[in-house]
Design brief:
The chain has 150 residues and is an alpha+beta fold. The protein has one domain: Histidine kinase-like ATPase, C-terminal domain (Heat Shock Protein 90), CATH 3.30.565.10. It has 4 helices and 5 strands. A 5-stranded antiparallel sheet has the order 1-2-3-5-4, with helices on one face. The longest helix is centred in the middle third of the chain and has 20 residues, at 52-71.
Length: 150
């Protein structure tokens, strides 16, 4: 569905206008952090958190947060933007590791499926270097955004 080599639309000059400050910023320090961040994402998504759109956002966010905590050291950060009219959400996970996410044509039998899951549930995703580490990002469009309030 998606191409991991796709450039970051913010860097590539995507016509979407994202505010410089995220609507949500969470510091990920340990294994309890993803749960706290998911609760904050649910609040940000409002009534749409329980929709298929919200479920996709929460699943992809969980995968990126867990990958960052499992494969890097130090703090990681989750940022999310959900600007009105709430037709698209963007989530970024920043970590201090310069190592790119692994690419696998066939996932191993145990673990290693996080980015495959992300690829299957998001509309766009990729990664970009941000010294000293990287940003792994995704965007999900909400086709049912008309008539909904966050």
């Amino acid at each position: 569905m998606n191409d991991r080599t796709q450039p970051d639309p913010l860097v590539a000059g995507d016509p979407l206008t994202w505010t410089p400050e995220p609507d949500l910023l969470a510091v990920l320090t340990d294994t309890s952090s993803p749960g706290v961040a998911r609760r904050a994402l649910r609040t940000l998504l409002g009534t749409r958190a329980a929709s298929p759109f919200g479920e996709r956002v929460l699943l992809a966010s969980s995968e990126l947060m867990n990958n960052a905590l499992m494969h890097t050291s130090g703090e990681c950060f989750l940022s999310a933007w959900f600007p009105a009219p709430h037709a698209c959400v963007r989530v970024e996970v920043v970590d201090a590791s310069p190592a790119w996410p692994p690419t696998r044509s066939t996932p191993p039998t145990v673990g290693g499926r996080g980015l495959t899951i992300v690829d299957s549930v998001v509309d766009r995703w990729g990664f970009v270097g941000r010294p000293p580490g990287k940003v792994v990002w995704f965007e999900i469009d909400d086709a049912d955004a008309a008539g909904h309030d966050a």
